[in-house]
Amino acid sequence: KLHSDLDKGVGTVKYTLSGDGAGTVFTIDETTGDIHAIRSLDREEKPFYTLRAQAVDVDTKKPLEPESEFIIKVQDINDNEPKFLDGPYVASVPEMSPVGAYVLQVKATDADDPTYGNSARVVYSILQGQPYFSIDPKTGVIRTALPNMDREVKEQYQVLIQAKDMGGQLGGLAGTTTVNITLTDVNDNPPRFPKSIFHLKVPESSHVGSAIGRIRAVDPDSGKNAEIEYNIVPGDGGNLFDITTDEYTQEGVIKLKKPLDFETKKAYTFKVEASNLHLDHRFHSVGPFKDTATVKINVLDMDEPPVFSKPMYTMEVYEDTPVGTIIGAVTAQDLDAGSSSVRYFIDWKNDVDSYFTIDATEGTIATNELLDRESTAQYNFSIIASKVSNPLLTSKVNVIINVLDVNEFPPEISVPYETSVCENAKPGQVIQTITAADKDLSPAGQRFSFKLSSEASNKPNFTVHDYRNNTAGIETRRNGYSRRQQELYFLPVVIEDSSYPVQSSTNTLTIRVCRCDSDGTIQSCNVEAIFLPVGLSTGALIAILLCIVILLVIVVLYVALRRQKKKDTLMTSKEDIRDNVIHYDDEGGGEEDTQAFDIGALRNPKVIEDNKIRRDIKPDTLRFPRHRPPAEDNTDIRDFINQRLQENDVDPSAPPYDSLATYAYEGNGSVAESLSSIDSLTTEADQDYDYLSDWGPRFKILADMFGEEESYNPDKVT
């Protein structure tokens, strides 16, 4: 209520109200000054309002007093229940935790005024979840209420929490929330085998490293607390097997470490221990966290391939061993109960395998060809053994044959050397360093020694200094050499190897005496140093050269005499049908003069005998020779004549003077006879070649050639 001292109660004063909520939340009676709330108020929405009031004259509208400000506070009542703003809650606590173990703290919020009364004082309680958990009424902390809660018995718990204001008194408002609590696992349970004995059946043909069976121990724990490690307890048969853990199923996988043999042992028994990897020391008092079971394995008999006595065979044989020599043997056996015979054969893969043979029954290996270590030092091939009763069951073994070296080659100078010595050389001067090589391949390496031959060691010209490292130096022993006295020196060097039997060779080094300057630089030396064949002295070389010269002289004389004899025979022989060319010192009659020589030599000798026409007597009827136009396609005739001409030019038995040679002779064996007019008894003028045109396209060229000749026949000229 507002009232002014100037208000006499006669209605001359008017009250006005302004500020927060004026006209909407609050209103004022203009005459009496009473202030009223026109709607319900909510402290949680607006706890106070600031208003301004003024008294004015009704008539003049002027303020009678200054404007005054006042505050209206909203008094709280318990109209809001507590609320869990973060609910529902999820929490966890390890299993087997002691009583009072902290789980979670919940908090409820009340919107009422905490400074006025008990409207905002909250008290917590558990409506559902006892007797497993408890809550502090003031703080809202949840703790375990029972000891040794086992996750394996019950893992999930749902707790209903209530928060009530007014200090929990009757009439207070309440709110609830849910807390889901999970017991986390701890390693409080050891692994246990569901049975004490496991029986497994394994074929004897199982491969080493393969899994032959699985066993499993049960651990009710989870996660890493359920991880199990399996171990084989040392004992009977345990060394043949191994066990590992399958990380996904936590099973023990038994694997084979060594081959099984039914004929040797048919059953194995051993113990397997299962234990946890991650132990919790708080539960050691419960007992050992491991368990033991027995595994019995029965080996099943299988039809197996033969077994070689060795995993690999290594043999040795000397090179050049005679063919058929036995160098070793392989052995394989059938270990099954019903033992079967074994057959051997070489696994042919390439031509190298053909150097050896194997006896199919005994397994002995023999050479099939001569071996050369310098060509191949080692042979590697496979031998297969199969059972006679079941040829499909085979086994293979690798055989290595090393070819041993036989010291059969002497060492020789490795490369040719051009050795020279200066005329002004001093004693002890090294003029050449030589090395040697041996075709024999010694595994330890060859050692060569160098020395002069016995006949050269007494000469005071040169010496050999062995450096003991497969090299040697040629040193001078004189003070100066003279080219005028001796230009070449032959130095025999003996080289020996260190193998057995010792092989040696003598290599002759040719040393050229050269003119040098004061610094030892060669100025004039044109003879190359060469190595002569082994074991040849100077006298032997001279004798060989003389023999060669004598043989050459004999051959030259023999050839000259034979050529002279043939020349005389050709000049005097009356049986030669070829006419000799005789010079008359007169000019011929040109191309048409055919009477100067007998052309019959160019004809078939048999025709000449039948038709002996005198060329020196004028015939009864003189016929002019036919002028043949040059044939366009006469390359074959030209090549044929050139070939015969070259053969006579290079013929060593031909006379050294010009003579006629028969080129147009045709053999007697042709049933078609000759088409040439040279061999015909009739003259060309009597021939008619029109029939060639009727023989077809193959004789077209001949028809054209002889048809043209008819047009040039002088007998038909009128």
From TrEMBL:
Keywords: Calcium, Cell adhesion, Cell membrane, Cleavage on pair of basic residues, Glycoprotein, Membrane, Metal-binding, Phosphoprotein, Repeat, Signal, Transmembrane, Transmembrane helix. It is a single-pass type I membrane protein. Residues 4-84, 85-193, 194-308, 309-413, 413-531 form the Cadherin domain. InterPro entries: Cadherin, Cadherin-like_dom, Cadherin-like_sf, Cadherin_CS, Cadherin_Y-type_LIR, Catenin-bd_sf. The chain crosses the membrane at residues 530-561. Pfam families: CADH_Y-type_LIR, Cadherin. It comes from the Eukaryota. One of its GO terms (biological process) is cell-cell junction assembly. One of its GO terms (molecular function) is calcium ion binding. It is found in: Cell membrane. GO terms for cellular component: adherens junction; catenin complex. Cadherins are calcium-dependent cell adhesion proteins. They preferentially interact with themselves in a homophilic manner in connecting cells; cadherins may thus contribute to the sorting of heterogeneous cell types. This is Cadherin-12.
